[in-house]
Amino acid sequence: VGVHAVTQSEAGEVVYLNGQLVARSEARIDPEDRGFLFGDGIYEVLEVQAGLPLFAQAHYERLVRSAQAIQLSVPLDKDGFLRTIRELVAANGVEEGLVYLQVTRGVAPRSHAFPQGEVPPTVFAFARSQPPDPSLAQGVAAVVLPDQRWYRVDLKTVNLLPNVLASQEARRRGAYEAILVRDGVVTECSHSNVWMVRGGVVYTHPADTWILHGVTRAVTLQAARQAGIDVREEAFLEVDLWEAQELFLTSTTAGVVPIVRINGRPVGTGVPGPVTGQVSRAYRQAVEAELRRLREES
Amino acid sequence: VGVHAVTQSEAGEVVYLNGQLVARSEARIDPEDRGFLFGDGIYEVLEVQAGLPLFAQAHYERLVRSAQAIQLSVPLDKDGFLRTIRELVAANGVEEGLVYLQVTRGVAPRSHAFPQGEVPPTVFAFARSQPPDPSLAQGVAAVVLPDQRWYRVDLKTVNLLPNVLASQEARRRGAYEAILVRDGVVTECSHSNVWMVRGGVVYTHPADTWILHGVTRAVTLQAARQAGIDVREEAFLEVDLWEAQELFLTSTTAGVVPIVRINGRPVGTGVPGPVTGQVSRAYRQAVEAELRRLREES
Question: What is the DSSP letter of B121?
């Protein structure tokens, strides 16, 4: 059970900063960028397979939704977003990995309310190789922690300190992820969505303001239903975790990952369960379909 | 009723970055600074009067407390902190204004959990002239908004997007501040603490995890009590706001500020009240005592 980490940036890496591709080693931002002073920004992470960024339209739509909710304008239209991502992937020769893109409210003398006058947003993006970790298929450990985040975690903002602290606490306790609980209700994990299997039915928290609306979550939901699996967007409780037959998580960079231990105790039989396997296959088929679509497009 | 803003940075400004004083125009940080990617950092704002930073020891102690709570080490001891602040104030010729100092978990390839190995924290600080706004003494307008922040707002972190959005909404509605309410309880404002007067008694939320423990709040509390004013650290409700005889706020950069309108309605008689005046005088005496102490020290 390894701990996920972005691979070290390589010499020669090229990143995107405010309209230009620049050497990673040259990329710098202003310390009064509102991303640095206030966490006043949003982001997306896309999975790259076979050199192709997956589900880019869904990621762009979520970026725009996050932006609108915090009254930030994204200075890239959909075509500009797609072009930027593809250029970054190509420039860095990424075959399997990820693209990260962040937009902040730009640089202005520090004051809480929005800058007045025309301040261009800052856009920073990178593409990195990160081969899939085959050990994840054997299942990972998780710990249960309180969900201490703000009330709009459906927005993918860079106000991520609670996620950072939960992720670190999971690692400290030898786990891959932290399952978060708010008022007794399981919401999601520190950087993934969580799902429970009970009586052959798959449950996951509805896509309201209390979870991040994962793109992989949405793809998995649709794919599993098309495969005839009974999936319900219904919240479940912390106490349900201890009775779960199976648990799994979904994330953009790791896909469907079985959770086989929770707080040191085995989940179900302690090995990846059959329903998780069905869901995982359905998700992989959706990814294959997306790859075929992208190849036909290009 | 004006809106608070840091004055525009001037040509020739000098800031502090990682151990050095550098020209503001030259100061740059890495885009993979965890402050920029995760809001993984903390900060302090100090008031400067007569060229002297006030209550610096209390600010340093709070910085260290915030740091410890997020397992971050501050690479400045108390003397280094005081020296840095004084150098910045002197280098920029600040007589009346503020010092801002931020510490983040440094630069590392993006991954939620803490960087492994030795990663030096980033320290950024600036000192700016900002003359006091005499119009504040006539009182300001406030609006009531939901407190949507995370569960550890006692830590002075740069995860400030909810504060930014509340502050912006207050400004949009012509107000100086937003009074925040969580589960019916008044907590504080978007960047200040709030106090209510009823029956001659002054109430403010206790210093638990639901408010920022303002240095000006603590100074005001002690000064008001020494002046014989009955001040109680007891939470009050949103409904109490509408019956309040007086309301006021405290912040490092503005001191004690009467709130004379709330959601467009007058507070009490609609002008600064007598208890607020007493508290304000007690606070100003504490500031005078601090200035005398600092002058004797130097």
Answer: P
